[in-house]
Amino acid sequence: MGQRENNPIDGGDDKAIGEANNSKANKQALYEANNKNEDNQLCGIWGRQLRQLDQEQMGFKFMVHVGDIKYGETPCYESSFSDVADMFSHESNAIHYDLRDSFFVPGDNEFQDCQDVDQAWKWWMKYFGNGVVPNTNGFSTLSDPNITVEYQNSTLLRPYNGGNFAFYTDGVLFVGVNQVGGGIVGDEASRVDGNYKWVKYNMDTHLSRGMRAIVVFAHASMGSARQTYFGAPFMSLLKTNAYSRIKALYIHGDGHTFSNYSPDGTNSNLTSVQVDAGQFANPIIISVLHDAVADDFSFDIDRRGGLYSGDCPAGNIDKTWSSDY
Question: Considering the domain boundaries, does residue 286 fall inside one?
Fold first, then answer.
């Protein structure tokens, strides 16, 4: 599979959509965990959800976890990261999906909420990696040999952008960035600005190759503390002549309650989706559709039943991952 590293800055969830109406669908399952990870583990929900993800049957190409893998008020231990990696890769869970097609972006609970951010980031990169510093499970590399995954390079000025990834297929650009919530972190001028420049670099690169849509994966919205360095410039970029026809979807967690909304009332081509907390709902499936007759791209959001009827569905008490707690 093709992988390469780029440093363009600093110098220094069961309905499948098939081939219909001359449309082509790219599908990916997206999973966002509630910040009460202990509740997820006690209920056994993560394991059950993962076992139900069938790439072939459901038709998705990859899946993305959009952050908060641990409870926000608990200390950050290495096991906070290794447990989740073990769960995703455990043979009892990874039955019908390829580990290489599992992508992750960090949440604030495992980033700035940790007592030692630098150490937490080293653990995050160790267990979820970005292909340049390979994790043992091969996460975030893609099983399709025809798609190249690129990774943003870490620098002294932007040490926390190394987890960012991007790949392009069938007219659609997919990008993941370290865009966490939890209020102002203090490094927005470097990390969040680096996120925008990474997105723009890839958009500029693939526009001439026929890019017609972009999907951005992040933990938090593009507004609030991210508005100045990402939200505003990204929304402005999409309204330039070069990108005025691009359909854009920004998917995030953080708020833990499903919402499908427009972050820019002046651009109907831009949509944001906030996914439900993982302990309360199934992973969702996003389909990117291309109507070849109208030559138009669109997004289909399948919540796969939406919220569960109870906080902890019966029959889910299991643990299929290691634990040092």
Answer: yes
Residue 148 · residue 159 · CB < 8 Å: no
The counts of H helices and E strands in the chain are 7, 13
Q: Which of 47, 43, 30, 39 is nearest to 322 (CA)?
A: 47
* 293 in a structural domain: yes
> Would you say residue 14 lies in a domain?
no
- Region of poorest pLDDT, from 81-90, 177-186, 223-232, 249-258: 177-186
A 10 A CB-CB count for 176 gives: 30
Task: Count the domains in the chain.
Answer: 1
Taken in order 194, 66, 124, 34, the sign of the CA dihedral is positive
Tell me, what amino acid is at 138? G
Q: Which residues pair with 213 in a beta bridge?
A: 172, 247
**Could you give the 3-state DSSP secondary structure of residue 297?**
strand
Measured between alpha carbons, how far is 271 from 262 in angstroms, rounded to an integer? Answer: 5
Rounded to whole angstroms, the Cα distance separating 62 from 28 reads: 5
What single-letter amino acid sits at 280? F
For 61-88, the pLDDT digits (tens) are 999 999 988 877 778 999 999 988 998 9
Is residue 62 in a domain?
yes
Per-residue tokens: 135: 């994790």
Residue range 178-189, pLDDT digits in tens: 999 877 888 999
Q: Residue 279 and residue 319: Cα distance in Å, rounded?
A: 15
Q: At what angle do helices 78-89 and 117-128 cross, to 10 degrees?
A: 20
Which residues span the domain enclosing 65? 24-302
DSSP characters for 114-180?
SS-HHHHHHHHHHHH--SSS--TT-TTS-S-TTS-EEEEPP-SS-TT-TT-EEEEETTEEEEE----
CATH number for position 124: 3.60.21.10
Q: Coil, helix or strand for 44?
A: coil
Residue with tokens 């707690």: 325
Q: Residues 213, 288: contact at Cβ < 8 Å?
A: yes
